[in-house]
Structures are given as structure tokens and as C-alpha cells.
Amino acid sequence: MSPLIPDLAPLWALILAVGIFYYVVFDGFDLGVGILFGLAADTPSRNLIMNSVAPVWDGNETWLVLGGVALLAAFPLAFAVMLPAVYFPILIMLLALVFRGVAFEFRYRDAEHRTFWDHAFNYGSVIATFAQGIVIGAFIQGFDVHGRVFAGHSLDCFTAFSTFTGAALVVGYGLLGAGWLILKTEGQLQQWARRWGRICLIGVAIAIVVVSCWTPLIEHRIEQRWFTWPNYALLSPVPILALVCVLWEWRALHGTAEVAPFIAAVGLFLISYTGIAISMWPMIVPYHYTLWQAASSSSTQVFLMIGTVFMLPIVFMYTGWSYWVFRGKVRAQLSHH
Prior knowledge:
Shape: globular
Number of strands: 4
Number of helices: 14
Largest sheet: 2 strands, antiparallel
Mean pLDDT: 85
């Protein structure tokens, strides 16, 4: 590396991590709303649930595009190895997101078949979330890599562990969705969201414990990172904070707080995400290539960073502006457009 060109691999890793986390939170809550949508008791409730995400749902997927492009441009080796390894869950996710988006629009235009589109919106949300969980599980358990290419089978990503992480993400997004509905609705629908939030929280707490115990059994390096001295003393705040967030969320869902349930759910996701990052660092292709081994050339990263410096603030600004404009409670008389 030229002494004149800075090492941007950690910065690109941070941008990628932030992009993925923003996607998980923002598209996570509207996928969660779609998951809970299928459990709503009547049409007026479903209309309100749909209206709660109508102004913002499509913009949330910006972060998915950002994450994919950042991975391809900044870490092409990681992209080349991981894409064939998780090809089928990615394909399933994208098809489910498309089907869900179509259902969202047609529900308002094709009233005669509204029940069909309601089911499509619900199932599309569940399937897309489950597929994302499969990808996360496959990433944690690692890939079969020979040389610089994926050498495994395209179905290797479907294991007991990845199936569990898929189900865990469904209840996780359900918790985010419940937090969003508590924020955006009132009365009976809000109480309904609180009840489902408590059910999802129990699932999330169980999932965190199971994954935390299961992951070190998959890879001994993760076990060494978490369970050797002085690491377990240094990293002990992570599980402690997770427990604090679970208790905070449980209390918020039982009380009258409207903002806290969503914030606590985001906190739980942030802590879980941090735990995965600690387990994997500095690997980007577990357990074969580090950030620096998988990175594109320094000149390429500098060139890409110039555009990113201008683009990211714009994305943050229009995202923040859209949430500010559509703040407040949703009402029954709101229409889709």
C-alpha cells in the first residue's frame, strides 16, 4: 500500500456494518408490521396497520442496496464467495420482497381480491424475514472455501442452525414491528400490539440465549474469543446490556410508554449485532479471509469513498425528513396516497 493512500478497509467495514444495521432496523420494523399484519382481527385494524408504514416502507430498502453495493465494491472477494453460498435464500428474499411490494400496492387498487393481497403481504413479509435469517445463520457458521472460491453446495446454507436463526429473526422483526405499532397507533390496536410484543420478546430472549450458546460450539475461535481470560471480563458488558434491554422492553410493553418499546427493541438488535461483530472480527469471509485480504485495491476504495461522502448525508437527510413529515399517530381516515 502506498504511504500516500490511507487504509480504508476498516472505514468501509464500518460503512457496510452501519448500512446493514440501518436496513435491519428500518426494513425490519416494516417487515415486522407485515408479520403481525396477518394476526390482526379485522379489516379496520389491518387498514391502520398498513397505513402506519405506507409513507416509509419503500424507502427503507435503500439500505439493502447500499449494503450490497458496498460489499461488492469494497470487498469483492467476500462478495464473490458469499453470493453463491447464500444464493437461494437471497433469491427467495428478493422474490418475497417484490411480491410483498406488489401486494402492498394492489391491496388498495384491487378491492375485490383484497383478502388475497392481505395474505400475500403477510406471507411475503414472513418469507423475506426467514430468508434473511438463513443468510445470517449461514454467515455465522462459515463457508466451504478452497482458494478464493466457494467450494460448497448451494444448499449448504440450510442447516439446523440457520433455520433457527431464520425463525429467531421472524420473532425479532415481530418485536420491532410491535414497537412501531405502539408508537403509531392508539387504543385497542395499541394494546393488541403490546400483547404481541410481549410474545415476541419471549421468543427473542430465548433465541439470544440459544444462539449465544450454540455459536461457540460451531467455531472454536469464537469460543476462545468469548470464554478465555481476560476476554470474558472485557466482553461481559455485552450479555449484561442484553439482559438490561430485555427487562426494559418487558417493563415498557406492560406500561404506557409509547417510544420505549421501539427503542428497547432497537437496543436489543444493536447488542446482538455487536455480539456477532465481536465474534467475527476481523473476518469478513468466516473463517477464511479478513477485511484486508478481501478488500479491493486502495485506489479503488479511495475513489469510491469520494462518492460515498456525498451520497450518505443525502440518504440520511431524506430518510430523516420522511420520518419527520409523517410523524404522529395514524388515523383510520388516512388513505394509501
